[in-house]
Each structure stands twice: as structure tokens, then as C-alpha cells.
UniProtKB/TrEMBL annotation:
GO terms for biological process: methylation. The keyword tRNA processing does not apply. PANTHER family: TRNA (ADENINE(22)-N(1))-METHYLTRANSFERASE. This is SAM-dependent methyltransferase. Keywords: Methyltransferase, Transferase. It comes from the Bacteria.
Amino acid sequence: MKLSPRLKAITKFIKYNSIVADIGTDHGYIPVYLIENNISKKVIASDVNEGPLNNAKAFITKKGFEEKIETRLGNGLKVLQPDEVDTVIIAGMGGTLIKNILDKSKRITETINNFIFQPMVDSYNLRKYLYENNYKIIDEKLVKEGERIYEIIYVEHGKDYLENEIYLLVGKKLIENKDPYAKEFIQNKIQKYEGIMKKVEKSKTVESKKKYEKLKRERDSLMEVIKWL
């Protein structure tokens, strides 16, 4: 089967012969792809909503992979037991939600080796949590699908040091690797910042002034990063 560029990029981080949990599997496309292409030997596909999970079940059955892909209804990593999988994918959710999923299941996360995250928003909050909770960002990738650029973050356990606050806004690996979409990604961020700054600037409250100054500092930092690329 053919995956979208976003989903295909996620699968590139999966190690051969791994046992994977796809949290928030939606239609079950990634689990089927991993089994169909002999990348994983077993996949657990979970979703918090019964409707999407039933769609995934139907697709898995159609492909004849019921023995290698198990579906589970449940919230976050609570569908898993310790040492049950070595790799977890959490894609298509907000960064704050991903952070909360990790934080509520530390007994499970301790037994998982590899994490692939694809936050739709709030990657700042997710990266901050990772730096503060003994996760190490091994690699990051940007992928463009239509008009939108998505962030993919590959993580393992280990101590990582935040050398510069800018790495919470734009992943260090994206800058180091000079990701092909990094410049466009940052330019889009700058445009959003400037749009918010114009609105905030109209308010004369003390809080608004503080917010404006914070936005301006971050906008200026992003403009500096573009010079590094």
C-alpha cells in the first residue's frame, strides 16, 4: 500500500523486526504498512475512539493481518503492559497531549526503547518535556504534505542538554541537518508570530506588553536561525 508523505516519513524511523504500538492509529494505515513490508513482526494498533478503531479493524481484516496486528480500545499508553513493545508511535496529536500521555504512563515508557512523535501543534511543550524528563532527541525530520509542513521527532531514553532555548521552537537536529524544509518552516513561524504581535500590540495592558516582548524575542531568535541555514 502507498502511504501519504507524512505517514511514510514516520515509518522510516522504525527499526527492522521491531514490535510497535501505534497509539491513535485512526485507519490503521501505518500498522498494515509495517507488516506488509516486513518491517515489524508485530503491531498493536490502538485508539481511544471506537469508530476509528473499527475502521482500522476492517482494514486489517481486509489485508489478512489479524494475527500480526492486534487492535485495542483505550486511552494513550494505558493499553500496553510493561515490556510489551519496543517502539511507540504517537502521531497526529498535539504536543501537549503527547506530553500528558507520556507523563501518565511512566511505568510503561521506562520499558520502551524508541519513540516516534508527530505533533500537529505545541511541539515546543513536547520538546521541553523531553529535555526535562530524561529523553534524548536522536533525530528530527520535516515533511511537506500539501501546504503544510509536519515535524517528526525520533526519541530514545537518555540525558539531553538544552543548549539554547531556540531548540524548543525549532529542533536542534533540523538546524544541524539543514533540513530541506527548515527555512520555509521557520519563515511560516515568523509570519504567525508577526500576526499575533500585531493583535497583541493593540492592547495596552501590562500583560499584553509582556506577551509582546516575549513574542518579539522569539521572533528575533527565529530570524537569527534562518541565517544559520
